[in-house]
User: What shape does this take?
Amino acid sequence: MKRIADSTVRRLSLYLRFLEAFEREGRATISSGELATSGGTTSAQVRKDLSSFGSFGKRGMGYSIRELTVAIREILGLAHDWRVVIVGAGKIGAALAQYAGFRDRGFHVVGVFDSDPRRIGLALDGLTVADAATLEADVRQLQAEMAVIAVPADAAQSVVDRVVMAGIHAILDFSTASIAVPPTVTLRTMNVAVELEILSFALTNR
Amino acid sequence: MKRIADSTVRRLSLYLRFLEAFEREGRATISSGELATSGGTTSAQVRKDLSSFGSFGKRGMGYSIRELTVAIREILGLAHDWRVVIVGAGKIGAALAQYAGFRDRGFHVVGVFDSDPRRIGLALDGLTVADAATLEADVRQLQAEMAVIAVPADAAQSVVDRVVMAGIHAILDFSTASIAVPPTVTLRTMNVAVELEILSFALTNR
Assistant: This one.
């Protein structure tokens, strides 16, 4: 498969949300124009995004919502569930561990880890915070495929190294650190401080 | 000032983090190469990013960490504090309201709102969750400049419309909705579900 840009994958993920909402409303078909409006893009972009993956829809008939939903879920790898560990059970980690949205979308949190004795043993929505001392062994034993990192910046690289060592190839990092990973590992970062600073810049320079 | 790309602003925000860490270690100067390594980029990119804003550093001498820190904080609009409201006091909103990292970076959470009677009145780190019914008036009275939206997807657009009506021009949205704002408003989105789906795609197609 040819390399697909992150921005395309991001739009597919958004299209999927609107398709699901339309399906809940009982709709059967949708035009590329409607999908474009929902996604804040153009019909041409929608058709281009989808054509990378196959032939969907009939000219003048729109797309079958059911068919397109199944196809996009398949493309995004959501046809099966993923096993996720969360490292760091502070405010952000704990909020994520208890976030029902994960489960609903097929991301099963199978373990939560922390190195702080005050947090180890805490119950979070059916999971118990485990000691990060045995992280590598536990990640393997839990057969986790993704890791969410919610530890302080100065601990983040070492935690990332350890989950990578344990065989994890997909990481979502909430720390404010700059993290290096091997080329075989996909790292996504969500940095609230950076986003706020982009807003601060925008307000200052508008 | 000419239009600066988001990616440049994002890197400035990262450089600032490393400069602050170096300053804490007692360093006085830094080369563009060191800054590039920390930021996962090249010396040429660092020089280009900084040259958009003025003349920093001397050839062969590196940058003065103190001077560059002050300059970047100024560029990003961090020389003064910002007043932030959080709308939605569920797990994510509550975690954000109590996140010390906000205050440390000059983002003061001055109000937290929710429409759920079970949440209104809850104490969150010195703030009390207020009734979102009077959001517009309260946002004005609090002189808030930024809003963080952490409400369910189906409520997000209406909440965004209300804070915009109340004079907010900078919004960080954690909902999974696709939000429209007027061109005078800067909207940044942090969507955990989309990031996880990008990881799912990467694992599926590697």
